[in-house]
User: Fold these one by one.
Assistant:
Number 1:
Amino acid sequence: MNQGFRAQAFRDPAAAQRLIDAAKGAARKPIAIMEFCGGHTHAIMRYGLRDALAPEIRLLSGPGCPVCVTDDSDIDLAIALGKHPDITVATFGDMVRVPGTGGSLADARAQGASVEIVYSALDALDLARAHPDTNVVMLGIGFETTAPTIAAAVRAAAEEGLTNFFLLSLHKTTPPAMRAILDGGEVHVDGVLGPGHVTAITGADAWHFLPVEYGVPCAVSGFEPLDILLSVRDLAVAMTERRPAVINAYRRGVTAGGNAVARQLMAEVFRSSDARWRGLGVIPASGLDLAPAYAAYDARHRFSVEAAVSAGPSAEARGCRCGDVLRGVIAPPECPLFGRACTPTRPIGPCMVSAEGACAAHYRYGRSLS
Amino acid sequence: MGATVLLAHGSGGLMARELLEGLFLRHLGDSELHALEDAAVLDPVDGRLALTTDSYVVQPLFFPGGDIGKLAVCGTVNDLAMRGAVPLYLTVGFILEEGLPMDDLERVVASLAATAREADVRIVAGDTKVVGRGAADRLFVNTAGAGIVPPGIQISARNARPGDQVLVNGAVGDHGLAIMTQRHGLRFESPIQSDCAPLSGLVQAMLTACPSVHVLRDATRGGLAAVLNEIAGQSRVGITVHEGAIVIHEAVAAACEVLGLDPLYAANEGKLVAIVPGDAATTVLDVMRAHPLGAEAAIIGEIETAHPGAVVLRTAFGTQRLLDMPAGELLPRIC
């Protein structure tokens, strides 16, 4: 939190209306902007910005929910680890309710698997220290925002000589996913609302390929309504003037080069790998595996656990269209399960489970009173 | 007595006796308890009896502004008060995990006793069990409470009527964020304090001024949003609340921004929602504000005939949206 930051100053309705009018005025033709980040989707729905900007500006939700893009097969693997008698799986809370092919970690826990909810990787380290006779496997979920803290935990384990702490790295990096969506060509994207927290780590320069290779402007945005509207206005202006660029509209959090300490830590502990994304498939060089120097902490190396064969139909088989939602191909209410078979209380797909999921945001804030 | 709780302390033998006399009875002074009989026998009461029970499993046991002992008294006293009852008696049951530091137990019991005195309620019966390591998480408490509902008081979550006003006795989210920031190791210049407090005194002052209060509910788990939804559902009315009128302490708002949480869904342990007839709202508000536990009280909304069963939030941003029931536990964002 920046010193002197006052959230209310970024929620002024009159200033918001001026930015909405300016953005709509700048758009010469209807334009589509993809917000990459689930945090943005949440704020956009909470403050009603999607409706306020329509029809001139259409906001599309992207794949920026770490829990949502975790593949079924990875969840199945985590469950298999949790069922191993010598292993406790430590995970962020959102993850436990996400269904794999045959159930969720929460289901597995109810059947006796050892699954502990932690609030940070450092809690998982504490768990390993407190239970030296148990192997603690941390599920590494998240983008560039969480990867540095997980890296710090792995390095701390190495420095301390902990022999019962391991990582199942399911970390993903965001620029390759944005590239995959644009390469896929399924959705037309005129501009990208860049993820503010991710970019605080990577630096705004990480998005230069968008204007340079795709001619698509990118505005890195904070998470308050005025942050988002300022970014949308800047994108609309950049499109109209045909001057694609990376615009840093979140200067109180983001620099061109990012957080050097965090990036150095990630570079030391991880190496780039291919990763499977729900809805997007395998994207080259979009994952983070442990570097060879830290291979001893890699749960995949240490434990030869096979994911259990599916005990039931996958979410997709039940009609879930999270994959299409994550690529921006459909908006959540267009899924036939949305709000009927699939609700936050009884979610079928991950986008309804996670607080950062697009379906959860649409369900919570987007329903009318009728 | 030893530095830690052992299985033998629950045996019913000499060590159990030692724990009872050396710790529990030193703090809990009621004559009924000291009689060491199998059941308390109490004087006849005049009026309708209110009865409730609740179990307390909070982690951590100690948090800024309270602990599990204080919580175990406040929670049950407040449940009685929310039906308009004057709390009279509590029973207390402890489940202790073998290995619990005796000092921790003593702190909890001392705090529980002090809170009972503050709430003017007698602890007249109790029980202790010790379970093996791993069979409980350090210390669980159950309390049951009994109180008397004065004549003429009819308070129920089914009684909200169109035209009624919705009041809250202060800022929301303090308890939930006090626990959450402690679990996360988030530090603020002054730590967020739980609002844990017995509300029976405040409620009695409110009911003296306005016996026709329709609904009282303490906004515990699920926070303000859950309570308002329960009332809207049980009374089959619509509720509109004004975001700008809801008091949220600055540190709580800041912590919610960091963690990605909504303070309207965070737990409280010293906040109540009161639904009162429209013409009595300002009278009740004045009484609340004159009480130490209601200094920041506010009228936050009204009951309507439109959208029965639903709670609508008019945001400070000028839009309106459904304020839904919380779906599950509050979890900080990952991204």
Number 2:
Amino acid sequence: MTLHPALDALIAALLVGAAFFALVGSIGLVKLGDFMKRLHGPTKASTLGVGGVLIASILYFTVAGNAPFLHELLITGFVFLTAPIGAHLMAHAAMRFDATAEPPPAPGQKPERSDAG
Amino acid sequence: MTDAVLPWVTVAFAVSMLLCLYRLWVGPSLPDRVLALDTLYVNTMALLVLIGLWIQNAVYFEAALMIAMLGFISTVALSRYLAQGKVVS
């Protein structure tokens, strides 16, 4: 299977970008300090990582099969719909499970939380 | 170029799965382990699509779709169990 060189380079760039963001997400999952911080890392893996691989797969199979191969859009849509729901439920579980797990204060704000909130 | 890049991309996804496994192993809290499982299934899905791309077989896409659905259901069930002590109210 020989691809057009430009398309080949585009697919390779998408795959490398996806691998980079998957690694960034997992390193964030390992290195960040507490649960609320760790929740940020995997969002990169689930949007940019999976999205890059799936777009590369759509491009490759569309060109290799000479017909639009759009099944991967199902996975993309499903993941992009369910990732925020899962993250919300996990944050909810963490706040119920551990009463001290609260969102950190915004940068530049005083660390004391006001009682109004 | 894609053929040259594919093994390294596969290795990168495998390494990120190992990092998720580390977080799953050390915890320290139960929601951390749920988050690690969630990231693990997302990476598994991308790895399956990648293997389908590597051996030029579009069948692996269906396995990836199945993992996406089951992974989401398991994340929701585990999170609800931790938050409320029961899965179905």
Number 3:
Amino acid sequence: MKGSGSPMRLKAAAVGWSFVILAVLMIVVFYFYPMIQALMLSFQTGTGANLSFNGMDNYKRLFTDSMFRTAVKNTFIYLIVQVPMMVLLALFLSTLLNDRTLKWKGFFRTAIFLPCITSLVAYSVIFKYLFAGDGLVNSLLLNLHLVSEPIQWITHPFWAKITIIIAITWRWTGYNMIFYLSGMQNIDPAIYEAAKIDGASSGRQFFGITIPMLKPIILFTSITSTIGTLQLFDEVMNITRGGPGNATASISQYIYDLSFKYSSDFGYAATVSYSIVIMIVVLSIIQFKVAGDRNG
Amino acid sequence: MKKTVSLILASLMLMLTLSACSGNSGGTSGSGGSEGSKNTGTTNSGSSGGSQEVTVWAWDPNFNIAALKLAKERFEAKQQDITVNIIEYAQDDIIQKLNTGLNSGTTKGLPNIVLIEDYRAQNFLQAYPDAFRDMSDVIKSDDFAEYKIGPTSYDGKQFGVPFDSGATGLYIRTDYLEQAGYTVDDVTNIDWNQFIEVGKKIKEVTGKDMLTQDPNDLGLIRVMAQSAGSWYLKEDGKTPNIADNPVIKEALETYKAMFDANIVKMNSDWSQFLAAFNNGDVASVPTGNWITPSVKAEASQSGNWAVVPIPRLGGSSSSVNASSLGGSSWYVMNMDGQDAAASFLADTFGSDSELYSDLLEQIGAIGSLKAAASGSAYEKGDDYFGGQKIYADFAKWTEEVPKVNYGLHTYAIEDILVIEIQNYLNGKDVDSVMRDAQTQAESQLQ
Amino acid sequence: MVKVRRFSMYVFLSVAAFISIFPFLWMIVSSTNASVDVTRGRLLPGMHFMDNLRNLLESVNILNAMKNSLIVSVSTTLLALLIASLAGYGFEIYRSKTKDIVFNILLLSMMIPFAAMMVPLYRLFGKITNLVPLIGIDTLAAVVLPTMTTAFLIFFFRQSTKMFPKELLEAGRIDGLSELGLFYRVFVPTMKTTYAAAAIITFMSSWNNYMWPLIILQTPQKQTIPLLISTLGSSYTPDYGLIMLAIVISTVPTAIVFFVMQKHFVAGMIGSIK
């Protein structure tokens, strides 16, 4: 945009704003208005309709709340282990599925995408059945002599976390793949041709071309996956209910319990929600900085 | 591009027209009242002389919804002014909708009548004190089993119309008992220690576990506690009552003894719970009477089941062979149409013993209205249970269930206990388990 | 060497596809079994498909729920694509300091768990109902309104626009296209894949959306598919065969949308334009 005179520049600015104004208005009304109310709620206490302001007490309570601490710890374990694994797996799968000469592309893509449209109800019944003490996964492992006794996938604190991580990866890898596949259209095949002529291995091509070219999309999926993991609810609620004990409990599940399962403490639930917001903001800024994107 | 734009416009039009049509039909309902008129207290308020609609929310099509349908039929046959509109949701969904609606302070979209589980009732009654209608003027608390009154009343007012009994029994496989050398009499009116002994023997002979448990669901502990008239909370319904509560201690020890005896098959959800006894993997199911249809779902086991009184806690003298699990009750919302709603409940679940015998015969639901606890329907034997008159038995046990105050925090405390019980099963000693649970509950519930 | 690599690629993809698709197949098999067999984890097809279908059609109005879900998901997807792509394009192409700040603030709206906004949002719709009942509580429009603009999708379009070859715009300007014309005639056709991906994702999340429709809808005639399925599972004696059948039916539309849209994922499309 090289507007020379100031009326031109003004007009250019007006054009730019007109593209974004509808979106901005909608988000202000349907997100920021409720968010501000939730922020005010986070300084109040009481059950149901009997609310009163109590200053910073809710925020202080966070630091002494052992349930909250466990939920944060679990959530970060999921985040650190699961997000990088899934992003790499999704990138790898998309690279394979982006090959023009690949047969049955449509089938493979649809198959790998299917998990994220499978209804939660079915998903939880099936997963619990597969990972039960005498379930299919254990039978398979026992028959292949990979383990000597059945793994307690759902009822052992360590293995239950693994089960949750497997479940998230299973459900969301295909979802992230979509973004990469759509981004790969923007990479000029001539670049790969040139690399091949230079004798670059496919590994070199993947790390040297695919990843740098897809950087904006990788940044996007990393941030949205981080948000998704910090707000993780469905998998935990439906597969382990946070158990055994609270070994797999997540922050969002705690918010749900505070609001609906226990005595409807909407004020403290809002406080816990804002703690998630703060964590995500910090993590996102870090990710923007690492990616060298100027938005941060 | 034009195609896309016209598509968007068309879909918008479609959406608006559709919501417009259905908007009109919703306008006649007592709950969705488009004007939001505030003539509380008068029947037929606002609506133009015609019939009034009462909206009811409940869960479980085979039980509560089926019961509502029978009640609606009988009620609408008697009068023309009020029609009953039954809406089915999952229980968790009702809790979310009710909390969100009540909290946002708008009565739009709330039902006239809602079913609430007894464990959660006090929470709703105390958190939203003006939201429910006092039913003292249309029903008498004395007409219902005494243990249902505590959860359904608050501050001396009777808010709930008590519904299903939730009375527990021990469903047991007679064929497994026989193989292990026992008779039904050997497991009638026993305590939990005897139960465990029988379980060990059955496991030894048949290889089957005695019962199945989901470690996240402490229903069994609740059953044990109530059988001794005790609870996680003191009488006030607010103070945690774990550390110095001998009943809870015995319940925990009994629970652990079952795991130590290796007679518990683990499950992690409802479908696995059902599968455990439908598959014949367990010899008994100690639970509420609402499980009857699920037990009977496996036709091939017909004649192999009996129901005996739930075991008691041997070490607690107050413990009896009767308890309750997961009953619920009806509540009227304090808003437009409340009198119509109240009259529906008063005429049906509040007094109609004939309705209750229909409920029993057609869906196997046992109520808590005392007047309805006998009659020909109860005297029928059930061939699935070897001709046993199970309904007469459950009706008798319903009268014996000890009264407790579930209070405000049943599920909050249970989540703490679930964690501590994991530690207990892994070797932590029982006194520190109870002390730690108490400390956590106190700091969390304040 | 190349053949071996090719072969191992197919093996890897087949394994990944099998793992992904297995629960889905299991669901289809289960829809032909009786409830008791489903809870047993029976892996063979049974004879109960017709029974399950009949019971399903008798007990709930699944076609009506499908219709509602289609109305909601199609309108949400079309509106969301339009609004978010305009905004994503606007934020990147007409970049300014102020807009960057506004954009970063918008991103904040993705970060709060929905559970925290539910009560205030419901209160807002209580007020809207008084003014314009047509888009208030218990209307399908109320399901669409708060979900059709997401920072998530704006962010996606903006990141994709970063990869869009800006030379094409300059070329268009020289040809005398207006700013809106550039968007419609140059950006939209070039970014087909991005639109396809956005359509898939938006349709899917709208189709599966559960919490908000649950809260805002009241009358059973307006029920969407996820609400119906949740109701089916509400029983102490759930009929799992019937539930699995309902789920299989409910999954078909999203699968079709995906299958049709993924054909637009053509490798190196922009490269071939130049």
Number 4:
Amino acid sequence: MSTNDQEKQMAETIASPVNMNQQNPAGSQRPRPLAEDHALVERVRKGDTLAWRTLYERYSQPVFRFVSALGVPPEEREDAAQDVFVAVYRGLKSFRGEAQLSTWIYRIAARHASHLGRRRRMRSFLSLLPWHEAEPEPQPDPAEKASELRLLDRLLDKLSPKKRMVLVLFEIEGLGVNEIAQVMGCPPNTVWSRLRHARAELVRAARRITR
Amino acid sequence: MKSPTQRTDDTERWLSETIEAARRRIGDEVARRRVWARVEGLPAGQDRPLRRARALALPALTGALVAIGVVAILRMVPATRPTHAPVVAKRASSASALQPRTDAARVVSPGASAAPVRTGRGEKARVALVGGVGVELDADSVLSWDAERRPLVERGQARFEVPHQAPGSKFAVSAGPYVVTVVGTKFHVGVADDRVSVAVEEGVVEVWRGDRSVRLVEGDSWAGPMRGLTPPAVQHRPPAASSRRVAEAAAPPESAPASVELTEARTAFKEGRPEDALAMLSHCAKGAGPAAENAAYEMGRVLRDGLRRPRAAVAAWGAYRTRFPDGLLRAEADLSILETLAKLGDNAAALAEAEAFLARYPSSERRDEVATLAARVRGAP
């Protein structure tokens, strides 16, 4: 049985508390793994600016979407995306192609978003101190008028960072479980477990709001 | 009244639909372009504003204690200090503090002496000024203070992050013969090879020399000579022939007026004045650079969504494609044409566009969407 079949079978055996598509329909949203990704990497390594631009065009939107879904506020997203692409560029020299390019970029973005999340939590902790200026409320992205998406972001905020990342990678970014395990550096079973809990918590939170 | 089961179904349906919407979340195209402008020079070795972020090396608790200490020190700084004298290093805990975009950053505490801050090769420094102004000093740079106690970039690159100033108050930075004034923004000042350069990340800045100035908005950059008597010209429109010599010498950015016009056009469109927006976009599109490219694309949106002239919109996007065949908004223009033709019921043209799109962008995230649309058009009578 192929890895994909195994994933599919596992997905079908999980009792999802919400009618999220078990077979990860979001797969169509992510950049397809391309044979030419490796050629692209080679060209970028040689300083080909057109190849670099192609790589940016291919992956910048997923990176922006991913960091947004992980709760990076609008005012920090540009810096976050910039830092991700700087890290991607610098890391390309040592990219061995063992993982798909997309997986590798998600890993960098995930690490960076986690770092920003820690910093945000630190700031929010410090803002509780009596002598510290209060943190300004993050402003909604003016490009995102949909209140449902903002509500979803608020629901995702209630998940732990690890559960949120698994849910976002699976449901929104469309990665397979094995790939998520590579991104997060944990066993696939842990991914399944976090995904199950994340879904359940998300549904509970949504029910509380819609009650 | 809805039963609990029905409520659950509604919640699940809502979640499914919202997650589906999140998958399609495209985000801010302009933001993507701004980031591209900052990273495009990497293969050419231009990594000036670009340093890899690094995860916190210290455990969170230690970090919190250090940050508390920094905050406490900041609290003890007397408010009577000269306005922009350096007082202490980075305020990691403050929202207005510098973002930790540098690694190996050297923390500098010049104290009241206001001695110049220097960085060597491969060294970077963060300086915090009274008023919440943060400075990131790049490698091989010197930051000192001029006779009026304004920060002076003597050499190298510095990125300033200035919180919004009180009404009537402006923050100023000196660089060679120029003074850069801001109300609240993020910007870079560089001094190298007898030239001063300014690049604006956010907000608006003015570069002054004597009584003349040039105004820069977000995304603009400008460079002027260190020597010579030519001041920066006020350039809010493309330079006239008589002022060309001045414009060339002072090199005010052509993109500044174009960017301003683009912003004004967007505002006009939002305010329900599509004719005004179109006129401004049309003027802006005649220029050059990113603003002109954006304007050329946005003309189509104004024509379609504001003036209800879809055919004219398709023509405008067609003109964009002809002029910017590899433009950053090329895919958006292709999709806009495709969607508009499909809505117009021009199935043959829409199908041709869809097939061209699928051939041109084999890895597009919107490939499935376009393929579905193509299938629907093919099946249409």
